[in-house]
Design brief:
The protein is an alpha+beta fold and about 625 residues long. It is extended, with a radius of gyration of 37 Å. Strands 6-5-9-8-7 form a five-stranded antiparallel sheet, with helices on both faces. Strands 11-13-14-16-15 form a five-stranded mixed sheet, with helices on one face. The chain folds into five domains: about 5-35 and about 190-255, no CATH class; about 65-165, Beta-Lactamase (2-Layer Sandwich); about 265-375, Beta-Lactamase (2-Layer Sandwich); about 380-450, Signal transduction histidine kinase, dimerisation/phosphotransfer (DHp) domain (Helix Hairpins, Orthogonal Bundle); about 455-615, Heat Shock Protein 90 (2-Layer Sandwich). It has 16 helices and 17 strands. α2 (about 35-95) runs antiparallel to α3 and α2 runs antiparallel to α4 (about 170-215).
């Protein structure tokens, strides 16, 4: 071959516009084979990175906008409630002929309700009384107006309020957090790109050498690849060396192929893939099938190659698409995707497979089928959906109760002290319940992010049990459940994170009450033995199947018992409780029988010399 044609030959073997970053082959007489692996990867990675940046920015903007709108709506609702309450108060003053107290009352309302401005206006818009809270800025919402029922000197009056602008640091925190996540994702993508580039250099260099050989280049020294590129480069150079001892011109003119017609190097690369690959020719015959595909589809590789595609894939819809594409010369669309259920007697072998079909440009009617196992992806999506639904219910129930009891407190609380006390008690309980749900979610996020830490200090267990009694007595009485605290006269002071230990105990007691039917009993027993502080939470509720005793400690898992389908739960409590107790060196175990009840045992090591505090033993 004339060396004068070599520059033009190499230019054809490289993508147009790609800068040669270095010589890929051994230098000889100024010519070399250049790598194209990095350019191919970059052409795909750059648009993907841009798309990710745009998507992250759009999601961040929508999140912040939604958050701002939520804050605005809450501000308007709060101002409307304040205006209505203030109007009733002013009505009472007018009815009692206490006009001199109107201005001071307006000032008190504006200050207590965090309003920027309160005005009393007549039906012509004239301001009769006005008060502006110092050092406040009105929020960017319309003024809220409430009409008075009592006229003043025959004039109809209305009360107008302007809510104050409240700084919202959570927006800045959200922006910073999303920026940090986006930056971290880009860094991970960059490192992944660099690693992939190094692995593709040898394949790109060998590909360029193959193209040059196909064009007629026979000089093995020019076609050699730098051995530093890895085993593929060494194998290629070895092949060149063997070919040089024979007739390389013949090898270039008629490349060595397997009986399937697939290049040996490509076969090795495809066999190393973890996704399945099938190549089907225009006669719907399997020309190639890699090892991963034979595993995913449960077929014999040697028997499948050369046979009809229907011996490998049984789904009629996929077979119809393959046959139509083979007959027409190409698929109806550039890319077709199907999802199949993978069954079998063994549950471990069941799942979901995604089949992606694409036409091959080099041969009319030939089709590439990529087979992926997306079972875990589907499980994760179902878990996320279930989690969102459960958490929505967990949050909605206490919020609804708080709203209802606030309305009751407003309507009947002033005239009935018992109603007022009950409303305040329920609102307090539901607020603490909301706090625990949010704390559970935050703790799980911290654990998954690796930032979950213990703040070790003295933990007075007597105080924790007193909180448990106060928090759950009313709930137990409402459901007619007997809640018993069987405690020793003195309880130890542990070394650990008080909030985390309290969270674990709240989850155990709350679950026991939740899954115990009306008229049942929940018993909490604490004792010290063998250098351990142990708490047993027992109930005579519905119980748990033996094969689910460990599964219930997994995140988002809920028992399959149909009786709990109507009971709201996020599936996080037990997983989080065991995690925090294990971080303290202890553990949580369960003993349960179906329809007879359950006993959860929490054990935490006692520190040497731990002191004890007394506690009043609860009566049944």
């Amino acid at each position: 071959m004339d060396r004068a044609n070599l520059p033009m030959l190499l230019a054809r073997s490289r993508p147009l516009g790609v800068r040669a970053e270095g010589i890929v082959g051994k230098r000889r007489r100024g010519w070399s084979v250049l790598s194209r692996g990095e350019s191919l990867l970059a052409s795909a990675a750059a648009p993907l990175a841009g798309l990710l940046i745009v998507a992250a920015g759009g999601i961040g903007w929508l999140t912040i906008r939604h958050h701002h709108q939520t804050i605005t709506d809450m501000t308007e609702r709060s101002a409307a409630i304040s205006a209505e309450l203030a109007a009733r108060t002013i009505d009472d003053l007018i009815a009692q002929d206490k006009h001199s107290l109107i201005r001071s009352t307006l000032a008190e309302i504006a200050t207590s309700a965090e309003l920027a401005r309160v005005r009393l206006v007549d039906d012509k818009g004239n301001i009769l009384e006005s008060f502006e809270t110092p050092d406040t800025v009105p929020a960017d919402v319309a003024s809220i107006s409430a009409e008075l029922r009592q006229p003043l000197d025959g004039t109809r009056l209305a009360l107008e309020v302007d809510p104050a602008l409240t700084p919202d640091p959570s927006t800045d925190q959200a922006v910073i957090g999303m920026g940090a996540i986006g930056g971290g994702a880009l860094l991970v993508g960059l490192f992944t790109y660099r690693g992939a580039r190094r692995k593709l250099r040898a394949i790109g260099a060998v590909q360029d050498a193959l193209l040059a050989a196909h064009e007629g280049l026979t000089d093995t020294e020019l076609l050699a690849v730098d051995a530093r590129f890895g085993p593929a480069a060494v194998a290629w150079n070895s092949l060149l060396d063997r070919a040089s001892r024979g007739s390389f011109e013949a090898c270039a003119a008629a490349p060595t192929v397997e009986s399937t017609g697939v290049d040996a190097l490509a076969v090795g690369a495809c066999d190393a893939l973890w996704t399945g690959v099938i190549v089907v020719d225009r006669h719907a015959k399997v020309r190639y099938l890699n090892g991963a595909c034979s595993t995913l589809l449960s077929v014999n590789r040697d028997e499948s190659i050369g046979s009809d595609i229907q011996n490998v894939i049984k789904d009629e819809e996929v077979l119809a698409a393959v046959r139509d594409g083979a007959k027409a010369g190409k698929l109806a669309k550039p890319r077709l995707t199907f999802e199949l259920e993978r069954g079998g007697p063994d549950p471990a072998g069941r799942g979901v497979l995604r089949l992606t079909l694409r036409s091959l440009r080099d041969e009319a009617g030939a089709i590439l089928i990529v087979v992926e196992d997306v079972t875990q992806q589907r499980v994760a999506e179902e878990s996320r959906g279930s989690f969102v639904a459960q958490v929505t219910h967990e949050l909605r129930t206490p919020l609804t109760n708080v709203r209802l009891y606030l309305e009751t407190l407003h309507d009947e609380g002033e005239s009935d002290p018992s109603v007022r006390a009950k409303c305040i008690n329920v609102i307090g309980q539901e607020t603490r319940r909301l706090e625990r749900v949010v704390q559970d979610m935050l703790s799980v996020s911290e654990i998954e992010a690796g930032s979950f830490k213990l703040h070790v200090d003295d933990v007075r267990t007597a105080e924790i049990f007193e909180e448990l009694r106060n928090d759950y007595n009313a709930q137990a009485q409402d459901r007619e459940i007997r809640l018993v605290f069987d405690l020793a006269p003195k309880l130890p002071v542990l070394q650990g994170d008080r909030d985390k230990i309290s969270l674990a105990l709240h989850n155990l007691v709350g679950n026991a009450l939740k899954y115990t039917p009306v008229g049942g009993e929940v018993r909490v027993k604490a004792e010290e033995a063998d250098s351990l502080f142990t708490v047993h939470v027992s109930d005579n509720g519905i119980g748990i199947k033996e094969d689910e005793h460990e599964l219930i400690f997994e995140k988002f898992y809920r028992a399959k018992d149909q009786r709990i389908s109507a009971i709201v739960g996020s599936g996080l409590g037990l997983a989080l409780a065991r995690q925090v107790i294990r971080m303290h060196g202890g553990d949580i175990t369960v003993q349960s029988q179906l329809n007879k009840g359950s006993t959860f045992t929490l054990s935490v090591p006692l520190q040497p010399g731990a002191s004890s505090t007394s506690v009043t033993k609860a009566a049944a």
